[in-house]
Structures are given as C-alpha cells and as structure tokens.
Amino acid sequence: MSNNVSQELLSMDYDTYSSELSPLEIDTLKQYQNLALNLLQLKNDIVTLNKEVDSTSDGLSRGALTKDSLLEELRELETKISVISTLFKSSVYQVVVNNSGDLAQNNELTTTSIPDDTI
C-alpha cells in the first residue's frame, strides 16, 4: 500500500459516512484505525530503539545482548497482539452472526402465512 493511501486511511473521519454505515460499523472502523495507528507508533519506536542500540559505544557484545532481549520482548508482545487480534476478530464475527440471525428472525416474523383452511 502506498504511503499516500495509508496516510489517507489513517486520518479518515468515519463519522462523515454515518448515512452509509451503521454506528457499529463506524465504531469498528475507528477501532481498526486506532489499532493501525498504535502499530505504526510501535514500528517507529522499534526503529528508534534499533538506532540507539546500534549507536552504543560499549561494543558489539552489549548491543547484541540488548538486541536479543529486545527481540525476546517483541516475541512476547507479538504473541499477545495475536491473541488480542483473534479475540477482536471473533467479536466482530459474533456481532455479524448475531445481526444476521436477528435479520432472519425479523424476516420470519414479517412474512405472513396463509392458514390451511383458506385454501
């Protein structure tokens, strides 16, 4: 994805689409946008940390040790983010399933059935 497109998506105001999207859809898009902004900030912080570690004057052993510990912490963070992402996706899926179940139930209630004795 190009930088212009990603910046546009990260700065988009979804409230302007209130006539086209439900409040739940708008809230979900905002949550994804917030997650993307947080991940972008995390990426920038990691780049900064890597630059700081590379510029240490204590030699390679300290830099390597720091990078290894940083990588280990990032692996733990990656696992946690994966769990949170899975839970978030399952929540969105559950909302979609519930809404489609409600729509199907409403359609059943609105259809009129013809009694057997009138035929």
Automatic annotation (TrEMBL):
The primary location reported for this protein is: nucleus
User: Which family does the record claim for this protein?
Assistant: Belongs to the DASH complex DAD3 family.
Pfam families in the record, alphabetically?
DASH_Dad3 (PF08656)
GO terms under biological process:
attachment of spindle microtubules to kinetochore; cell division
Q: Which keywords does this Swiss-Prot/TrEMBL entry list? A: Cell cycle, Cell division, Centromere, Chromosome, Chromosome partition, Cytoplasm, Cytoskeleton, Kinetochore, Microtubule, Mitosis, Nucleus
Signal sequence, start to end = none
Could you give a GO molecular-function term held by this entry?
microtubule plus-end binding
Task: Give Gene Ontology CC terms.
Answer: DASH complex; microtubule; mitotic spindle
Q: Does the keyword Transcription apply?
A: no
Establish whether keyword Cell division is in the entry: yes
Entry protein name:
DASH complex subunit DAD3
- Record organism: Ogataea parapolymorpha (strain ATCC 26012 / BCRC 20466 / JCM 22074 / NRRL Y-7560 / DL-1) (Yeast)
Q: Where in the cell is it found?
A: Chromosome, Centromere, Kinetochore; Cytoplasm, Cytoskeleton, Spindle; Nucleus
- Lineage top rank: taxon: Eukaryota
User: Which InterPro entries does the record associate with it?
Assistant: DASH_Dad3
